[in-house]
Amino acid sequence: MPHSALAPAPAPTPAPEGAATTKPTDTPTATTATAASATDAQARPAQPGRPQRGQPGRNTAAHALLAELAQRYPKLFGEHPLPLKRGIFQDLTSAHPELQTEALKQALGLHTRSQRYLQAVANSQARRDLQLHAVEPMAAEHSFHALAELYRRKQRRAAQVAQESQRPALQQQAREWFQQRLGKAIERSGLAPQAYAQAVQSRDPDIQAMLQAALEQATLQAAREQAMLQAFEASGVELAQFAEMYGLTTQATEHMLARARLRRLPPPAEAAPDPQARAQAQAG
């Protein structure tokens, strides 16, 4: 049996504070998902188990190492991975100095370009270290670019369907999927629409147009929820009665009011957001 590339992991120790957290990518190479998505490039996704053209067998070691990482860290590299902290490459080489750096770079590149990893980033899950500690919230721009890449892949698959007559319907389904997910991403970010627009841009005209439409819709929704909060505070009635007046469920009304309260909080420099209000808002 071949010797494993990973030696037994040492006892978990916290990563050095602030270690390699300033780069806007998941790994030190430009091949990671966030690096590719940050440039909003239409890069061709890597095909698992298939070496890149012109590089015969180059990814063999990377795939083997990625399988071992999945065994060692199933929550990070397994079937349903969590987003990796920035600087995870340095953490892995420190924990496993016997690893070949080039193979590790390739393995991380394959992993962070994978469909399942992009889905985790698009869902705005927190970034984790090797001990699964949530060390950094997912940046709105990283979540957006992962979502945009998933949309582009859906469009490419639709364009490659053998039955040409089916392509328009599949492409429209992809657009509707992206528009729905984008609205939720804006909501989950906790940012006002104007702040989200400043943080997120795309060079793809189609994606940028849908982003602008989603932001306009989010602005209208925020105004409605703010008006509802003012009406509720002035009404003096219980939440259930107020919800019935608007023809809404109590839970839906509570979520809308929580989002309105969250937007009304001072900027972070003046006051930290209320964790309970944020949890209620995101639950909706």
From TrEMBL:
Residues 1-58, 263-284 are annotated as: Disordered. Keywords: Chaperone, Cytoplasm, RNA-binding. Transmembrane segments: none annotated. GO terms for molecular function: RNA strand annealing activity; RNA strand-exchange activity. GO terms for biological process: post-transcriptional regulation of gene expression. It comes from the Bacteria. Residues 16-58, 271-284 have a biased composition (Low complexity). InterPro entries: ProQ, ProQ/FinO, ProQ/FinO_sf. GO terms for cellular component: cytosol. This is ProQ/FinO domain-containing protein. It comes from Vandammella animalimorsus.
